[in-house]
Amino acid sequence: MSFAPRDSHEAQVQFALERGVPAVIGVLGTIKLPYPSRAFDMAHCSRCLIPWGMNDGLYMMEVDRVLRPGGYWVLSGPPINWKANYKGWQRTKEDLEAEQNKIEEMAELLCWEKVSEKGETAIWRKRVNTESCPSRLEESTVQMCESTNADDVWYKKMKACVTPLPDVQNPSEVAGGAIKPFPSRLNAVPPKISNGLIPGVSSEAYQKDNKMWKKHVKAYSNVNKYLLTGRYRNIMDMNAGFGGFAAAIESPKSWVMNVVPTIAKIATLGAVYERGLIGIYHDWCEAFSTYPRTYDLIHASGLFTLYSNK
């Protein structure tokens, strides 16, 4: 999932969508990103001009929230390899060195392990659990977030605190549950459901929903013979639930933006990501963060019922 601010001279998000790449208009500012915790296997920033070392490490803490245990953060461009590039970047050596030092210090506080630095690219890896982070078990200078729901992000301000990981039984266990490689994870029961982290949702209910959407998509394809051919590249599901519709039409020729409305009774987007799908929280009383004419097909099941009294 790519995001970039809206800009008048270089509409990056519009270009991405017209190429058939998932993207939304967004910015890392003061509000939490509209994604659940532990959603992404990797976060990548290339010359994105985000002041990572400032604001008490606020932005790196938000990256930490959305990264899965064992996930990677890739930073390319300033200030990495500043010794060779400071002249081209038109910044002083002292300024760039101080910025990289701040990033390194915050990564250490977050218990990320630096696995590589080559040229202008540095890669860190998030630990798989808190047990494998000795400094976190001792007195730490980093504050832990007190919120009981790390996925409650809609219009919530970022705070300079670290989102705690679920407890584990042993040092090798992945916090929140290990996820199968794709495509096996697509139809496996997501750990957030099997571990009871989504209230009122059982593994049986999830599998029943999965089966129902396979049946529905088959019926859809009888009406629209192009549905499963790759004719529609950019697809949106306006009320995605567990992502059953997207899973049923999964193909390398298409992708689905799974939108979970903020007024839905249960927040299912975490399970959508654990299936290897992508999506976003959104309130359909507002405009969606995209450009005009960017989706080939839009699917909405139960959406008007959900908003009937709004």
From TrEMBL:
Keywords (alphabetical) are: Glycoprotein, Methyltransferase, Signal-anchor, Transferase, Transmembrane
Q: Name one Pfam family in it.
A: Methyltransf_29
Q: Which GO terms describe its cellular component?
A: endosome; membrane; trans-Golgi network
Q: Does the keyword Transmembrane apply?
A: yes
Q: Which GO terms describe its biological process?
A: methylation
Question: Which GO MF term does the entry hold, naming one?
Answer: methyltransferase activity
Q: What is its EC number?
A: 2.1.1.-
Q: Which InterPro entries is this protein grouped with?
A: Put_SAM_MeTrfase, SAM-dependent_MTases_sf
Q: Where in the cell is it found?
A: Endomembrane system; Membrane
Main subcellular location of this protein, as a coarse class: membrane
Q: Which PANTHER family match?
A: METHYLTRANSFERASE PMT2-RELATED, SAM-DEPENDENT METHYLTRANSFERASE
Which family does this protein fall into? Belongs to the methyltransferase superfamily.
Listed name of the protein = Methyltransferase
Question: What organism is listed for this UniProt entry?
Answer: Aegilops tauschii subsp. strangulata (Goatgrass)
